[in-house]
Amino acid sequence: MPRQKQKPYIGRFAPSPTGPVHFGTLIAALGSCLQAKNNNGRWLMRMEDVDTTRTVEGADTDILKTLESFGFEWHGDVTYQSKCTGVYQQVLDKLIEQSNRHASKQALVFPCICSRKQLTQTGSSIYPGTCRQRQLPETQDHALRLLAKDIDIRFSDIIMGEQSQNIQQDCGDFIIRRRDRLFAYQLAVVVDDARQGITEIVRGADLLDSTPRQIYLQQVLGYDTPAYCHLPLAVDASGSKISKSEGAASVDIKNKEELLCRALTFLGQDPPADLSDSDIDDIWQWASRNWNIDQIPRQNHVLV
Ligand code: GLU
């Protein structure tokens, strides 16, 4: 049988514009960019501003400028999820149509009117299926959930190894369009990754748990599943991820050489001690020549 031609590598970085670049953002950007370079691939930049309630004005430009001053270069124009709602709606319509075709069975997409308070009272983070029998369409304000079937989603993460999640037992029916009519991250990210032809996703391990839901959605929608590499996280002393929304300190571009070298060390790349005395182009050259994904540790690191 002729060997299947490998698709050209397309990677991406997808920050949410909720605050300035902090060390955790730098690590994820660096890991995904170097992995794309190493595969002679394209590296796309996507602003994940689908949740407009969390978007901070000007944060997108600030993130892009900071990344540029660190020497990052991406291919093509930056895309914005907030400008793609028409596409998400089309996909949602397709899912609803798919759901109606199977109306005799359990609906694949169903409206949910459970309040957060009601769900908290169940004492479990897994949706109990309360609204499963509701019929579409509903006039009352409601979220839309995707039915979680009793199937195991397995994937082999290039860094974190074998993963498995039962989408019904470990996750439950999940929201694809929120009550406030905003599209959920899970739907937007899956649609964007597919239409941009992303072949490998390199991102922080905080999203490892979301990946089975995304693969499930890809399967329901008939999309290909990309490869996944989840990077260890920079955490504080209590083990929580340092994040923009929690007000983590933004990176200081005056120390960009040192910070880039620290990010390389964080990713297990072992740069020479005096590399931070070099200029930013030389650091990129060293990093591109020496990048080895197998050296990335699995454990999160505490930042001191
Ligand atoms: N927008 C997400 C974040 O900033 C990343 C999502 C992803 O890479 O899939 O944490």
**Euclidean distance between termini CA atoms:** 54 Å
Order of helices and strands: EHEHEHEHEEEHEHEHEEHHE
Number of domain modules: 2
Q: What is the count of β-strands? A: 12
Structural class estimated from helices and strands: alpha/beta
List cofactors, ions and other ligands.
glutamic acid
Would you write up a description of this structure?
The chain has 2 domains: 10-82 and 232-303, HUPs (Rossmann fold); 86-196 and 208-224, Rossmann fold, CATH 3.40.50. It contains 9 helices and 12 strands. It has helices at residues 23-38, 59-69, 85-101, 116-121, 167-171, 185-195, 211-221, 256-266, 280-290, and strands at residues 10-13, 42-47, 79-80, 109-112, 143-146, 152-157, 161-166, 174-177, 200-204, 227-231, 234-235, 301-302. The strands form 5 sheets. Strands 1-2-3 form a 3-stranded parallel beta sheet. The chain has a 3-stranded antiparallel beta sheet with strand order 4-5-8. Strand 9, helix 7 (211-221) and strand 10 (227-231) form a beta-alpha-beta unit. Glutamic acid is lined by residues 14-16, 48, 189, 203, 207.
What does this entry show, briefly?
The protein is built from nine helices and twelve strands.
Attribute tags:
304 residues, 2 domains, 3-stranded parallel sheet, 3-stranded antiparallel sheet, 12 strands, Rossmann fold, alpha/beta, 33% helix, binds glutamic acid
